[in-house]
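Figure-free illustration: sequence to structure, shown twice.
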Amino acid sequence: MQFDDNRVDTGGVDDLRDGRGGSGFGGGGPGGGGGGMAAAGLIAMLMRGRGGKGALLALIILGGLTFFGGGGLFGGGQPAVDPGAGTTVTGTTGSSEDLATRCNQPGAIEQYEDCLLVKAYNETDEVWSEEFQRRGMPYQSPRLVFFDGSVNTACGPATTEVGPFYCPGDQRIYFDLGFARQLQQLGVEGDYANVYIMAHEFGHHLQHITGIERQVRQAQQQDRRNANQYGIAMELQADCYAGAWGRMADDRGNVTVTPEEVRQAQNAAQAVGDDRIQAGAGQQVNPETWTHGSAAQREQWFNVGFNSGDMDRCNTFA
């Protein structure tokens, strides 16, 4: 990937990993934390007993969908506390000086997955901050949290198997890189696939600070029969916001997005469609049980955002 500069700002990052380091993209780089190894062991066990990549992906995601009542992979959690309540993030804490030093070495963004994600976080925050300022809308940045194995959040406890997620209760985006590396083994490949995931989680933050997330939760409580449909619309909107950010970032020179990188994001969006997940688990494809939308819907709304570069086009609730 090509960014406008190679400066990595870790000021908005909480690194709760025991090892405090990022594995290289080959999965065996220096400084990797214990959570990634635990996830790798689970992956190997499931792949031996469950018939390959498709079934494995489905098993993990179906397990993760119970988190926050349907947040799951690339999702946004329903807060266990009022969104204005205090943060409950726990883990091994400390400064991000080591991460900052390593990620600002020549070639670090290309070599280390965590450095790429921090850089993507920087650029996503910069573009949305400027866009909200242009629109005269208030904006506040989320924080990015790296963790190993498990973490306590304002939305409740979470483990690697949940996948990347956003918690509105503490306004943090959570990543366990052990899970991210396994996605590469399951066909979700390319640097921009990871950037798309970051941009999707950022989309959930936008929903929180604009009040959309609160309105959706209220609608779900009042119309329980259609609660899943509201949740799906919110996930598809986050996909659309991810696409819109990609177009704006490219137009403004923050990131050069190539056609191949667009395909990487599209493939990632399709891979976590509910129909793909159910089919991969050997289940009957049942739209009434979906929580995130089909593969086609997720790709479609990413494309709407990327082709327009306009968050106003992301009205998935209409």
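We now fold a second protein in the same way, so the two outputs can be compared directly.
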Amino acid sequence: MRMPKARRCSRSDIPSGLGAATGVASGPVIRANVTIAMLGACPGLLTGEGRDIAGRVLVATLGADDALSTAASTSSLSTNTPSAFLADLPQRHHASHKGSYGSLAVLGGHDGMIGAPLLSARAALMNGVGRVYVGFVAQEAPAWDPVHPELMLRHAEGIDLAAMQAVTIGPGLGTSAASSACLSRVLAWEHTPLVLDADALNLLAAEPALAERVRGRTGPTVLTPHPLEAARLAGCDVQRIQSDRLTSARTLARYFGATVVLKGSGSIIDNGSHAWVNTTGNAGLATAGTGDVLTGMIGAMLAQGMPAATAALAGVWLHGRAAERCLSEGTGPAGLTASELLPAMRAELAAALRRAPS
């Protein structure tokens, strides 16, 4: 047995009642403790309701390892594993300085939502980026972060976007006129790597002109919607998104010309031509702020020069592994907080860097 590799299929080696391609149970379904998949795991075992229904998923390769490896190398669907991003992880060198690892701007934080961009910024800092600037939309914003005084805090309009290697926008941004103006200003920098999350996505759904500007960008773009945000972007309901998560992610990725992270159980990462199903993480991530942490992680990877797809793959995988590490150490899943992910994420990043090619 070995860890599952996703493939599109319609086979009998899946709990009865569970959609092989979608992970949706449309009626009565058998809930398994362990599911043994033959040759490869259907996506439905790894995303949506499938992870709860299938239980532990094992793959019987039936002695066809070489053939399976060849098929995996040509497939447009796979599971997210470190082999997909390790080669792009930014290495640390003795002859380097903070400027060697990029500057990231994190923009958001409307009134009452100051914590969201701070979580993103703290995650970015602990994910290796050289400098992190936090820009708040709220006028009454903190001047410094007592937990991480390394962060540079100011009003959003005071951030010099020309000096940034990447920008993330959306955590706690709100949907006010000031929020929209902030997003519009960011989109003027069409070559700068960009992560769009939370209310930035809601603004795209509400203002088609902003969405068109995203579609016209030439720089790397990553969108990180949860199912409701994805539904708003697609002009449909959540049930439609969840009924076929792979197709939903692919549609958004191609429409926006972006890498899309459709969050949820078995997050889907799609760059418009290839899709990955993430298998790390647990129910501890179902709490406020964990999405903000992920946004900061991906932004940090972009600022350090990683391509959009591998930045998203690394961020999502490490994010899930951090939750698993917390659980293994006795924290969660109930009661796990977003802030507790940060040291665990840093430890997982360190472990990944030790495995990465020099």
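Summary for the second example: Confidence is low (pLDDT under 50) at residues 7-11.
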